[in-house]
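Input/output pair, single chain:
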Amino acid sequence: MTQLLLLIVALLVLGHVPPGRSEFKRCWKGQGACRTYCTRQETYMHLCPDGSLCCLPYGLKAPAAPKPESV
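Output:
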């Protein structure tokens, strides 16, 4: 009886664990998230390998490229 109860609890817990790679795809050195749409607090940087958008929070924008020095 105890083993049956333990099995039921284990199955219930495993049912609530999110899938490994489908919902939590990361991009931009782990700072962004691959999504179909970016939220209002995020900006689009580039495409992820699966074709979705790489969304970064506005505070984590990529640094601007340095301007070349004019002589």
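The longest strand covers residues 42-47. The chain has a mean pLDDT of 78.
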